[in-house]
Write a structure and sequence with these properties.
This protein has 188 residues and is of the alpha/beta class. Helix content is 27%, strand content 20%. The protein is built from four helices and six strands; from the N terminus they run E-E-E-H-E-H-E-H-E-H. Strands 1-2-4-3-5-6 form a six-stranded mixed sheet, sandwiched between helices. The longest helix has 16 residues. The radius of gyration is 19 Å and the shape is globular.
Length: 188
């Protein structure tokens, strides 16, 4: 596995830290290429860390990203260190992740030489990262991702949602009385 740290420039000029995990390249026999060797390409996973939007780094999901990259169905993994609250108000975290997602689509095959989004583009995250994953997936339906104006839009082919906070059953903050009323229901 090859691991590379780099940055992607946000629209406001901030350099968003990312870490790219690339599976080990193998020789594929029977295919034409430079000296008879073809470097394989892999689907791409963009992974967003946990941390309640206020903590977390590239190291937070290191084990998860390495596991996805080196799994029996390997993937190039792009780990994103989005800006955190309270220093950066919402939607800065989402915008940073959207910027990186667009960069991944544009740079596949060039800066991400081992990546092939036609083989799959998966978004994933844990907790806060999972919630951003849901938002980006919906956003990509409304604003198609495309490497250039002349190509077909790229579709997100999957999501990995680890402990997401995606649904609230309460229209407002839960009161102590509402919590106590649930205890009565579970005792019956």
């Amino acid at each position: 596995m090859e691991i590379t740290n780099r940055t992607v420039q946000a629209t406001d000029g901030y350099e968003i830290p990312i870490r790219i995990y690339t599976p080990s390249r193998a020789t594929i026999s029977g295919h034409a290429g430079v000296n008879g060797i073809v470097s394989p390409t892999y689907p791409v996973t963009v992974y967003l860390h946990a941390g309640a939007f206020c903590v977390g780094t590239l190291d937070t999901e290191e084990i998860v990203c390495r596991t996805i990259c080196g799994s029996p169905t390997p993937s190039v993994v792009v780990n994103v260190a989005y800006r955190l609250a309270p220093t950066h108000r919402w939607p800065t975290a989402e915008e940073d992740c959207w910027t990186v997602l667009k960069w991944v689509v544009e740079k596949t095959g060039t800066d991400l030489a081992a990546a092939d989004i036609r083989k799959g583009l998966v978004l994933g995250g844990t907790s806060a990262g999972a919630m951003i994953t849901c938002k980006l997936t919906q956003r990509a339906l409304a604003i198609p991702l495309s490497p250039s104006a002349s190509t077909e839009p790229i579709r997100i082919t999957g999501q990995v949602l680890m402990i997401p906070m995606t649904v609230s059953h309460w229209p407002s903050d839960v009161t102590a009385e509402e919590i106590d009323s649930l205890k009565d229901v579970s005792d019956k």
